[in-house]
Amino acid sequence: MASEKTLALLRRRLCDPSFVYSAFKSSPNGNYSKLKFLISNTITEACNNSVLLLGPRGCGKGAVVDLVLEDLKSELPEIISVARLNGLLHSDDNCAVKEIARQLCMENKLLFSKMASFDDNSQFMIDMLRECGLAHKMIIFVLEEFDLFTQGKQRLLYSLLDAMQTLTSHSVVIGISCRMDADQLLEKRVRSRFSHKKLLFTPLTTDDMQRLLEHLLYLPTDSSLPSDYLKEFNSNINNILSDNKFKEILDLLLAADNSISNIQRFLYQAISSMHFQTELLTLDDLKSAFSYHQRQPMLDKLQDASILELYILVCMNRLESREQDSYTFNSVMKEYKAIQDAYKTSDNYSKSVCQRAFEHLIERELISFANNRLRNLSVEYRPVRLLLSSQELYQSLKSNASCPAILQRLLNYETYR
Amino acid sequence: MAKEEGIPLSPGRKTRSSSFSLSSSLPQNHRTFFSHTHLELLHGHCHSEESISLDTLTSSLPGRKPQIHEILRLIGPLNSPMLPLLLYGGPSTGKTISVLQTFRYLNRPFVYAGCRTCYCPRILFNSVLRQLLIHEKNAGKGSSGARRCEKPSEFIDLLRISLIQVVNALRERNLKLGSEESDRGNMIYLIFDNVELLRLWDKSSTIVPLLLRLSEILKIPELGIIYISSSSPDAYYLCTGSIEPIPVYFPDYSLEDLHGIFMRNQSNPNLYSSFLSVVLKPFYRVTRRVDELSVAFHPLFEKYCDPLSDQCLVLDEAMKRRLFDNLQPHLASSLNDVFWVPSWASHQLKQEGEHRQKRFWKSIRKEASNELDFHMSMSVKYLLLSAFIAARNPATLDASLFDSSGGSNNPKRKRNLQTSLDKKDNMAEEILLKGPGSFPLERLLAIFQCITSVAESMVEDDHFENDFAIENENFRLTSDVLLQLSALCNANFLCKSGSCPLEGSTRYRCTIDEEMAVKVARSINFPLSSYLYRR
């Protein structure tokens, strides 16, 4: 029972981004504190502001904004209203202004008409800004995927930032983007109205990493679990975290991708293995979770290919090593027939069967058409190319138990004939 | 027709649903769990069906036990939130059926949308919203009517509203029922199938990131999302970075798994397993896909069982040896076939009871392949052949092949042709590589004119030999050629190719292969090979 509750608790924690990033709430130089300070200052000084949050994917920008807004709403309930836009959905100006109007109406319990035009909606937005300014309220605009708003004419950005220039409005525009040069994408007139404040999200240091892991994995002492189980679990986690092998695994994991979301997914996979068996999290769970991260899809696909498909791949490799720049299925068949004539293997199949195997390879994305222009021709005449390197092919042929020995020899061009 | 016991349809490709349906030899009262087809699984999730146990789940899907365990532990216990999953593997490896059966075992509400049947964003959005509406109704809450949307922003709004309503309805229902009925949990799961097709859509640059980031955009913890795809996760990496879902890999079936799959639902397991021991290994070298293997095995098994009078016999070694010898010659020809579809001729002959002779089996195949299965008028056949010739021959040869009167019987012409052919050695290589070329309309009509004038003159010679006049109007060839041309284009025998912007005339390509052209030529006694440029 206790392990089930633990499992549920840990899973809930890992799937909640606010909890994950709240590990860094308390650090004074962190982005959370800086953003909160900025917005609270803007509220108290009753002015306008804009800020950009930049950082790679999965480093917690959206979560930080959510945390700050949640805290501010609980501290100052009546003062803040929020309008959220996403670049993927609302990059069109009409759509964006309609969405802003709809969200402002919802927050302030006004009726929203779907038939309102673009002019109506933008006029409503400007009026709303003025009214809120006069009533000492604040509107916060959160623009996610900010770089997608900078495509086209940037009308929305200009109108937002321009409306902020008047004396009576109180608003903050927060832009979130994963492109580090998002502010370079702004037009001149928009950029001049934009305060060049940027909050950068840097990769975590090892101390931060340690803090994050402890924050995520230690069970809280005030939970409803039995105390001896609690102590056992926490001491077990302590042992794992200080183990050298775990540190090695963590280093390898972070060498590829050191964002927080990568750690989140890694821990999720490790913890979910508690579903079927053990009471405690073991190092083996972490090791197997790491091995899932190390999967190589190309080699897996090659293990799945049948013998005829491997023959075709080897023929294409030979053609490529002869530096034929473009070849079609017909040339591959010629090579295949030549090999069958020379070696008289038992794998001599007809053209239609080989063509079916060829189409399987295209479906699996081990080979692809070299250019998309000649789409009207049938499969036999379109130029193709290999999507794997000779190294990968060689490696997988070696590790394939049922592969005939002749294929490995054929990979080297010199031994033919 | 007197014999109306039903025309046997071609075995066709075995789809997931048909391989799970009853084979005809099982007695009717032996309905087991396996009788649920794919569609029933999808529609049955709304009603409380009898749920299945974990053992039934893993035994019904041989070879998929580790994957099912992985899915189960990643989805987690009841009411536990989850990170998005991506299930990937080759086609026909049992991804969709595993997920659907797993949800039947878990008995939790889910919404299924396949990107193959919902082929554009609007249909996908509407399908998801409609299924959520059904869940709301089943959970006891009345609802406002169906919602429709076109744009992604509307979809996200409506989806958020629907999901919150469904979750609330589920929560209330669970509170009311207490412990009487099984608790289906507060969570709802979205399953997107065939996600690799999304990349081929028009607006793929917004749709793909939108769907893959659905859980972040919605921020609803009671939602779980599962993606099923044939491509590996690295096909979904976006330029601006992406949050990866957790991958689960479905490898292809191994030899033992395939054996297990084919042995299910067999009326005579001994007989079938001895058949499989002969047949499975050679075919495994060619292809590993279940649907292709089952299509190939079906006629072979009938052939295998032919000498047996009583199908329920227990086999001994001598019998097995005999059956194997009987089957051996057909194995080789079957390995080299892609699939075999019985034509009308072979069906009728089968009715006459002559199908047991080995020789006839082969001759049925040859006959079926030598004749055209459908009817075309004479002029269309000539047009098709002239298109084929225009596509295969380089344009510069036309002058030597056809003179102004159209005949090519001149011996001096033949000598000229031979010399000009020898000069163009490189062209043969190119044609082999590049395939048939495109030709303008004028060239097609010119060749057509030449051929038909030859044909008319030949026919007139024939007429003089035979004394009676044939009333066939076809030989006049006065039909509207352009009308026939558009009919050929509609039937995809010709297709339009890109046209030169300077000239403005359209160019065409011929899409039939040599086999079919030979068949057409044979049906009108046209000497095709003398017109084709060959090395």
Short description:
Chain A: Residues 212-395 form the Origin recognition complex subunit 4 C-terminal domain. The complex is a heterodimer of chains A (417) and B (535). Chain A is an alpha/beta fold and 417 residues long.
Continuous helix count of chain B:
22
CATH class of the largest domain in chain A: Alpha Beta
The biggest chain-chain interface is: A-B, 63 and 62 residues
Structural class of chain B: alpha/beta
For the sheet with most strands of chain B, the description reads:
5 strands, parallel
Q: Count every beta strand of chain B, where a strand is a DSSP E run of 2 or more residues.
A: 8
Overall body shape of chain A: flat
Number of domains of chain A: 3
CATH topology of the largest domain in chain A: Rossmann fold
User: How much helical structure, as a percent, in the residues of chain B?
Assistant: 40-55%
Q: What's the total number of strands of chain A?
A: 7
Number of helices of chain A: 21
Overall mean confidence score, pLDDT of chain A:
86
Family (chain B): Belongs to the ORC5 family.
GO molecular function (chain B): DNA replication origin binding
Subcellular location (chain B): Nucleus
Region (Disordered) (chain B): 1-23
Element layout with pairings:
The complex is a heterodimer of chains A (417) and B (535).
Chain A: H1 2-14, H2 17-21, H3 31-45, E1 49-54, H4 61-75, E2 80-86, H5 87-90, H6 93-107, H7 118-134, E3 138-144, H8 146-149, H9 155-163, E4 171-177, H10 188-193, E5 198-200, H11 206-217, H12 227-242, H13 244-256, H14 260-272, H15 283-293, H16 297-304, H17 307-321, H18 329-343, H19 351-363, E6 367-369, E7 384-386, H20 390-399, H21 405-411
Parallel strand pairs in A: 1-4, 1-5, 2-3, 3-4
Antiparallel strand pairs in A: 6-7
Helix pairs in contact in A: 1-14, 3-4, 6-7, 11-12, 14-15, 16-20, 17-18
Chain B: H1 16-20, H2 38-44, H3 54-60, H4 65-75, E1 85-89, H5 95-106, E2 110-114, H6 121-138, H7 152-177, E3 188-193, H8 204-212, H9 214-218, E4 223-229, E5 246-250, H10 255-263, H11 269-286, H12 290-305, H13 317-335, H14 344-351, H15 358-370, H16 378-392, H17 398-401, H18 411-423, H19 425-434, E6 439-440, H20 441-465, H21 481-490, E7 494-497, E8 507-510, H22 514-523
Parallel strand pairs in B: 1-4, 1-5, 2-3, 3-4
Antiparallel strand pairs in B: 6-8, 7-8
